[in-house]
DNA sequence: TGTACATCAGTGAACGCGCGTTCACTGATGTAC
DNA sequence: TGTACATCAGTGAACGCGCGTTCACTGATGTAC
């Protein structure tokens, strides 16, 4: 977070207040994991955080505001993963990088699935703030993938008919979406490692045009 | 719908009642398109359908029940698309089939995106009825894709390290997810046709192991 | 180091609204003769 | 074809609950001297 955290009245808040705010965010995240986002109430959050609704309104304008803050945090945590995409994937070690990237991304989503799910729902339903949060979080990954795809199109390794941007989005779509299938996968005998490897292969092949 | 539609008291309903029920479902779908699923109220639905809340409860136990019915309908409408997957994709015409499949699936999702989005959210949040609705809708596609993938693994066209089930899921994930990016794509100069073609290429390459 | 005061932070309690839900009733449709 | 009755379908109106939101206050922390 670059900017100082503020209360809803604009005042910059101190350490005690920051702790309370964090407790409220934690409570929001916790409830989001066990209940449906469709009925997340301010009052539930404050009960979970052992504080009062009046306190909640000191830091957030409503529940969706709190969720938005969580979504932004989750987005920031994802940033370091971009490193996996900065390596050159051609050559012998490319597969390793693809595997690391797929694994890291999946882990990240697993750790924040409830929040990211709501973020994406809100974004898809047209909420601008959530749209921007998603866009901001995904942009570095999209850009890096697009660059790789364009480079490999130039060198003739993959079809020039692919839209680099749509292809990159497709890759992120797989990563984002499949996390929610993990339970079903395990019922069907597909382990998490199987899944990660499969995704790494798909991504690697798509981006580089090489066989695994 | 195989089974006769019933009122909440178990009584089989007649033509007039069926119309009312349909009006309520239409109103639900309409509201879902313009408002967030996070605040869809029984009372709004009945206002939209120009009827009374008491009527609503004759046919549905709550809003989520109505959404579930819509999700099931959407699932049934998707069934015919399976035809595109029954052809053999190897050989010269394979690419055409892949393109038809991608286009049809995208069109279907675009026509029901609001409902399918909520269906998936609820399923991911652990609601059993929605989980089953999603599973039922996707199963034929998953099975058909898995069969194709396994066949091509046997003949050595694609890597045997891929989990056929995870790969098939990945393909559906792309199709389901990218619909929500259409707006952003068009801003970036990626037309719907570009997108469909890109998806067809990705699916075709992944499943058959052939270059486009 | 202690004290007085200023500012920060938290909350009890209340208000009012709007929604979910139901009941008893009215009106519409179907059917038997 | 008309009429009487049974059943189906729709709804007005009310109740009560629970939540969102706010205000005026109390308590905690920081700071100046």
Task: Provide a brief overview of the structure.
Two copies of one chain form a homodimer. Chain A is mainly alpha-helical and 212 residues long. Chain A has helices at residues 15-34, 42-48, 53-59, 63-78, 83-86, 94-111, 113-124, 128-154, 164-178, 182-187, 192-208.
The arrangement of helices and strands of chain A along the chain is: HHHHHHHHHHH
Number of DSSP strand runs of chain A: 0
Quaternary structure annotation: homodimer
Provide the residue-averaged pLDDT of chain A. 94
CATH superfamily caption of the largest domain in chain A? Tetracycline Repressor, domain 2
CATH architectural type of the largest domain in chain A: Orthogonal Bundle
CATH topology of the largest domain in chain A, by name, is Tetracycline Repressor, domain 2
In terms of DSSP E residues, the strand content of chain A is under 5%
Provide the domain count of chain A.
2
State the helical fraction of chain A.
Answer: over 70%
Structure classification of chain A: mainly alpha
Radius of gyration of chain A (CA) equals 20 Å
* Secondary structure tally, helices of chain A: 11
